[in-house]
Amino acid sequence: MAAAKTKTTSTTSLLLLFSFIIVFLSIPSFSSSSSSTDSFVFGGCAQQKYTPSSAYESNLNSLLTSLVNSATYSSYNNFTIMGSSPQDVVYGLYQCRGDLSMPDCATCVARAVTQVGGLCYQACGGALQLQGCYVKYDNATFLGVEDKTVVFKKCGPSVGYEPDAMGRRDAVLQGLMTASGPYRVGGAGDVQGLAQCVGDLSAGECQDCLVQAIGRLKSDCGTADYGDMFLGKCYVRYSTGKAPNSYKDHSDKSSNEGEKTFAIIVGLLAGVALIIIFLTFIRKVFGEHGK
Question: Which UniProt keywords apply (predicted)?
Fold first, then answer.
């Protein structure tokens, strides 16, 4: 009888240990790329509103679904959803940062679509930039149209003019300007740079946009330790070694840490609940065998 009891206790302990291993393995990992891709940069909405349950709303939902689905296999795409009348047509696109993997791209676009839907509720147009991706839709076509309007800029604190540091920064920005392709990265010493055009621009239009963005970035941010310049169809960013975060993550770290802590707590609570249910089931089974 004692041996049977010992065997039951041992089995329960092993099951408990196994359950805890499963719980800890199931807690999601949080890489720096996750926080840097999902954090908010800027967003905006059109003033014109659509009527709820209208054909435009149906077409917009279809467009947003297409954006999310397409992001699972392509880092850029655009769509035009036609309607029975001109006012029901909706245009949209998404763009992922050039270094993102397809899973990260898909996750980022899904997050952006969810956020822009809440931010621009019943608006005919909306745009949202996260660190890792960009989403835009409107009832007026913007596809293939150059747009060098400044939509967002951010400059870090000035570190004063240091010839070596500013020389490295200018060299990085010059390298981005003379490089080719819609996605460009560069670095010199402790300075990093990043530039990207939206995929609907031609090579010449992309170059024109980036030249404008780099010029504005240098003139507006001066001797700042980092700078971000987003135009309508391209952006340029740089970060020096004195910047608190790299150009990939200017987001509030306390917010990211809070999200991590919350997720871990939820995972632990869910795991404890599963363990209690599992052990109750095991106890019931062993109790029935013991009768």
Answer: Cell junction, Cell membrane, Disulfide bond, Host-virus interaction, Membrane, Repeat, Signal, Transmembrane, Transmembrane helix, Transport
